[in-house]
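Objective 1.3, modelling of assemblies. Example input:
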Amino acid sequence: LAKTTQPISMDSYEGQEVNITCSHNNIATNDYITWYQQFPSQGPRFIIQGYKTKVTNEVASLFIPADRKSSTLSLPRVSLSDTAVYYCLVGDAHTGRRALTFGSGTRLQVQP
Amino acid sequence: GAVVSQHPSRVICKSGTSVKIECRSLDFQATTMFWYRQFPKKSLMLMATSNEGSKATYEQGVEKDKFLINHASLTLSTLTVTSAHPEDSSFYICSAKLAESTDTQYFGPGTRLTVL
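Predicted structure (tokens):
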């Protein structure tokens, strides 16, 4: 399974755009990139998933360069409620029964 | 859609007792469910993969006789912590895959286990 590396923590202020980059140098051809958000004492919540280029949904954008060795989660205009841990995971969409492996995640602290 | 529930959300038990945690996929069928454990300020650690109708696959270092997993139906998996001890106190989270062809996992809200 491809290993991921993210910054341990990040600080931001309300209204700013936050970009969290994840490195996954040994990503495999079949691997997708998925980001989750976790609040204390809650299960992780799916944010976004992509394979290449750019994916956007109502809460975030995911940028993936052509070599796919990294990805960047972009959160537009964060608010205090975006304070959470964000996990980047890579996994093979076709293995069916294999679990995603969590790295250390990035602890985002949004200040007023 | 893709909602996963867990019950109970919080449990306190005495050392030596057994505790059962249920994980249900509410609006989809999941042939595969996963159980994770998370200690304070740490990341999620995969404990086992639960396959409907077959034995669970445990990660290295996880005692299968202590953490009994049963996946009796396509919407229910249970984790039983047998003879619980204080060091088993943790946050247990299950997840399920929406379909075999995707690795998007949907997670339950977690169960906080405290063993006195």
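Strands of chain A lie at 9-13, 18-23, 31-38, 45-50, 53-56, 61-64, 70-75, 84-92, 106-111.
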